Amino acid sequence: MLAPMLAPGQRRLAARPRTRSTSTSSRRGSTSCATSTARAAWSDRARVVGRYASSVGPMRAGDRYSANQIAPMLWVAATVTDTTVHTYEALIGPLSLAEKDQLVAEAPPRAVRLPRSPRPRPRAAPCLQVGEDSRALARAVLATPAAGSEPAYAVLRRLTARWLPASLRTAYGMDSGPIARATGATLEAAIRAAVPRLPHSLRICPARLHAERRLRGEDGPDPGAVRIERLLASMLGMG
Q1: How many domains does the chain have?
Q2: Which of 73, 112, 147, 211 has the fewest CB atoms in 10 Å of its CB?
């Protein structure tokens, strides 16, 4: 889901300017471009290393952490895929089990070679442990970077709280009571009702618009998608 891993607000920790441009370039360009930008992303992540300050779940204080370890990268890939599915179903409509399995089978991370099998493995929810470091990270990720971006981040915080499982919502300190939960449900319903009425350029993900342009044999990024990306970056205080 988008919410459990707090993906909407990864501006400070995972969406630095170089990381964003790297991700965007890999969607827009050729295979060689994607390879070079993936290597750049690997180099960026290589600097994210350290040791756990406290014990939580299977992790012991003092254990080494690196963003380029296979397990963290697979975890990020899994949460991005789960975010995609959950967001689509919450704001647009349901997907069949076959469609979800196809998405999993066709979306391995570029930096990790996932084992391929005739049928996707059954999905399983891991046991998540939330410690004080996790809560501090959540607060940092969802903090409004500037006054002008508060409306967007208010929506992100409300949807994040709504889409978290109840146990994690409580563990992260995001359960503000029944009124807040009802507000989240109303917000979700309003967005779901508004999406079909939006213009095509606003309704479709910019990455898809770039891909459609490539499929038409046109060079360069999609101009409309670039405008939307800049608008979103400005709304999120990332411009």
Answers
A1: 1
A2: 147
For 131, phi and psi rounded to 5 degrees? -110, -175
First-to-last alpha carbon distance for the chain, in angstroms, is 25
At 3-28, the pLDDT tens digits run 333 333 333 333 333 344 444 444 44
Other C-beta atoms closer than 10 Å to the C-beta of 124 total 6
Spatial contact of 142 and 9, defined as CB atoms under 8 Å apart: yes
Cβ contact 50:42 at 8 Å: no
Q: Which residues contact 144 (CB under 8 A, 6 or more apart)?
A: 150, 153, 154, 237
Max intra-chain CA distance, the chain: 53
SS3 of residue 63 by DSSP: coil
Domain membership of residue 106 as a residue range:
7-197
Q: Report whether 76 contacts 3 (CB < 8 A).
A: no
Strands (E), 58-160: 64-66
66 has which bridge partners? Answer: 49
Task: Give domain status of residue 13, yes or no.
Answer: yes
Q: Spell out the residues 6+ positions from residue 100 whose beta carbon is closer than 8 angstroms to its own.
A: 85, 123
Displacement of CA 110 from its chain's centroid (Å): 16
DSSP state of 216: T
- pLDDT, tens only, 117-173: 444 444 444 567 888 888 998 999 999 988 889 999 999 999 999 998 888 899 999
Cα separation of 87 and 159, whole Å? 10
Query: pTM for the complete prediction?
Result: 0.69
